[in-house]
Amino acid sequence: MDVDWAALRAEALAATAHAYVPYSGFRVGAAALTADGRVVRGCNIENASYGLTLCAECSLVADLRMGGGGALVAFVCVNGDDVLTMPCGRCRQLLWEFRAPGMVLLTPSGQRTMEQVLPDAFGPEDLDRAADAAPAAVAADA
Length: 142
Description:
5-stranded mixed sheet
């Protein structure tokens, strides 16, 4: 799939205008393209209890789910000055969960696949493997 990175980046920058950042002043916007061609957006939403702050990726995934779901094929995140930013570790995990095969991110060091920004990721297939192995492990302990 061809990605218009300039248009997607413009969507991310526009999302920064909706950020709620009374504590840090650090606006972040994210935009992604879905497998069915939709654009979903998100912005960071701070909270006085800093640990409850929502990253832009969190609200982007909420937008994805509210819009009918689907899978992400391309993603970009910028700050309020249109500087590319990397998703934090928690958000990389969140993006992993909602990625399409081959998802690409535009990062400060160029285009990267989801596997490159989160190698050896933990995902739903790991839960399936654990569930499949559990009966055998219980029987061995008996």
